[in-house]
Design goal:
By secondary structure, the chain is an alpha+beta fold. Helices cover 20% and strands 25% of the residues.
C-alpha cells in the first residue's frame, strides 16, 4: 500500500520571510467587511481566466494581469490621469502609481478605473489624499449608507484595504484599495446597492495567478468554504497566495504558488521553506520530524512509499511549535515540487498536522 516516508537531504538556503513565524490572526471588528460567500452582484458572462494582452505598456499590462477576473478586465485601455481630468479623483493624478487603466464597467455602465502602486504606503497615501480632498470623513459603512470611509477585511483576517462610498454627480462613487494587489480601484455606481455588490464581487474574485494556484490544489482544499485572497503578503517571491478555511476554531490553511521548482533545492519556493523553518528553529534537515512513529519537530524531504519502494523526492515537510498563540500550535509547512506550491497550516497539535498532511498528499497524488 501507499504511504509517505521521509528522505533526509541536508540543505541550508538563504532567503528571507516577510513575517517570520507569523500567521493571520482575527482582526478587530471593522466596517465594510468582505466575506467569501455568495454576493448579490448582477449576473454577468464568465470572465476569461487568461492573462490579458493588448496595446498597453508593460506596467499597464502588469496592472491588468493582477486584477480580479470580473467582467471587462480583458478590455482595459490606458487611462490618462492629469490632475483635474475626467474621473481623476486623486489631487496628484495618482502620481505615486506606476500604471493606470480604465476597463468596461458592470453591465455597460461607467468604466472601472485602476491604479497600481509600488508599495502599500504609496497606495494608502493616495487613497487618503482622495478622501481629504473630497471631504469624506472616516467612519460609517457602505453596506448601510453613504457617505462612508472605513477599513475592510475578509472574515477573521487582518485589514486588507479601505473602502469608501459617497455621492457624486447624482450617482454613488466607490473607491477602494486592496493592499495584497497594491491596487486602487474606483467605480461610479448608479446607486449604493449596485456599488456595494460590485465591490464585494470584486474582492472575492480571483486573478489569473490565483486561479492557476487553485487548479493545483486538491479538490478538498475548499470543501469547507471558498478560498480567498490571502490577507497578507507573507512570501514576497510568491506569484499568488490564498487562504482556505478550516472548521471553526482552527486556523486557515495558506497556499502559495511560485515559479518553477526545476532548480530544486535552489528554487524560490524551497528558499522560502528554508526561511520559515529557520525562523522556527530548524535551519538544517533532521533525521526525524513531523511524520514518524514518534513524531517530533523538524524538517526533511518527503516521497511516496509504494510497497516498500521509496519514490523520488516530492518536496519538503517541516513542523515546529508555535508559542505566539494560546494555546500553542504546531506549524506545518510543506512543498510540492511538481506544482511549485507550498502549504502552511498552524495545526492544533502535531497529530492533527500528520492526519491533515496524510490526507493532503493522498489527494494530490
Amino acid at each position: 500500500g501507499g504511504g509517505i516516508v521521509a528522505v533526509v537531504l541536508a540543505v541550508v538556503l538563504g532567503g528571507s520571510l516577510l513575517k517570520p513565524g507569523s500567521s493571520p490572526a482575527p482582526s478587530a471588528v471593522v466596517l465594510g467587511t468582505a466575506t467569501a460567500g455568495a454576493t448579490t452582484a448582477p449576473t454577468e458572462p464568465p470572465a476569461s481566466t487568461t492573462t490579458p494582452t493588448g496595446p498597453l505598456s508593460a506596467n499597464e499590462q502588469e496592472l491588468q494581469s493582477v486584477l480580479p477576473r470580473v467582467n471587462g478586465v480583458d478590455a482595459c485601455t490606458s487611462w490618462p490621469t492629469p490632475p483635474g481630468g475626467s474621473d481623476v479623483l486623486s489631487p496628484s493624478g495618482y502620481a505615486g502609481s506606476s500604471a493606470r487603466v480604465s476597463c468596461p464597467g458592470p453591465s455597460g455602465g461607467s468604466p472601472t478605473e485602476y491604479a497600481l502602486y509600488p508599495t502599500g504606503a504609496a497606495l494608502d497615501a493616495d487613497f487618503d489624499s482622495i478622501m481629504t480632498s473630497l471631504g469624506v470623513a472616516a467612519g460609517g459603512a457602505c453596506v448601510t449608507a453613504i457617505p462612508a470611509n472605513a477599513p475592510w477585511n475578509f472574515d477573521a483576517f487582518p485589514e486588507s484595504g479601505r473602502l469608501a462610498c459617497f455621492e457624486r454627480n447624482g450617482s454613488v462613487q466607490y473607491v477602494w484599495t486592496q493592499r495584497e494587489l497594491r491596487v486602487l480601484a474606483q467605480w461610479l455606481a448608479p446607486d449604493n446597492a449596485a456599488g456595494y455588490a460590485f465591490w464585494k464581487n470584486w474582492t472575492t474574485t480571483m486573478n489569473p495567478a490565483e486561479l492557476d494556484l487553485l487548479v493545483e490544489l486538491p479538490a478538498s482544499a475548499d470543501e469547507l468554504g471558498a478560498c480567498v485572497r490571502a490577507a497578507d503578503r507573507y512570501y514576497e517571491d510568491a506569484l499568488a497566495i490564498v487562504a482556505c478555511p478550516r472548521p471553526a476554531g482552527e486556523s486557515s490553511v495558506f497556499y502559495a504558488l511560485f515559479e518553477s521548482a526545476a532548480t530544486f533545492p535552489n528554487d524560490p519556493m524551497t528558499a522560502n521553506f528554508d526561511s520559515i523553518m529557520t525562523s522556527g528553529g530548524f535551519p538544517d534537515d533532521t533525521e526525524t520530524a513531523c511524520y514518524d512513529e514518534t513524531p517530533v519537530y523538524g524538517r526533511y524531504t518527503w516521497g511516496y512509499n509504494d510497497n516498500g519502494t521509496i519514490g523520488d523526492t516530492e518536496g519538503y515537510l517541516g513542523c515546529y511549535e508555535r508559542t505566539d498563540s494560546t494555546p500553542s500550535t504546531a506549524q506545518y509547512v510543506w512543498t510540492l515540487n511538481r506544482t511549485s506550491t507550498m502549504g502552511a497550516w498552524a495545526a492544533p497539535d502535531i497529530q492533527a498536522g500528520i492526519d491533515f498532511f496524510d490526507a493532503w498528499v493522498g489527494d494530490v497524488r
